[in-house]
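Why should sequence recovery work at all? Because a backbone constrains its sequence more than one might expect. Tight turns favour small or flexible residues, buried strands favour hydrophobic ones, and helices have their own preferences. The token representation captures these environments compactly. In the example below, the structure is given first.
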């Protein structure tokens, strides 16, 4: 992909891949490729979620440490 992958785009693509596999519309010739791509997308989404969680926790800690809040 030339443009930066977003969580939403990765999630949408994962849903599409899952639907294709569930509906058995993926040929055997490309099944391994689809599963590999899904694995990459899952890892991307997990990393994105972990990074977001850490950032939110950091913001909360900063807010708790501010005097007067």
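From this structural description, the recovered sequence reads:
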């Amino acid at each position: 992909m030339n443009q930066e992958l977003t969580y939403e785009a990765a999630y949408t693509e994962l849903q599409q891949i899952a639907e294709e596999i569930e509906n058995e519309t993926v040929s055997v010739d490309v099944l391994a490729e689809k599963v590999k791509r899904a694995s990459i997308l899952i890892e991307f989404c997990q990393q994105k979620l972990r990074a977001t969680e850490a950032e939110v926790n950091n913001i909360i800690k900063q807010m708790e440490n501010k005097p007067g809040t």
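A few observations help interpret the result. Residues 4 and 10 are 11 Å apart (CA to CA).
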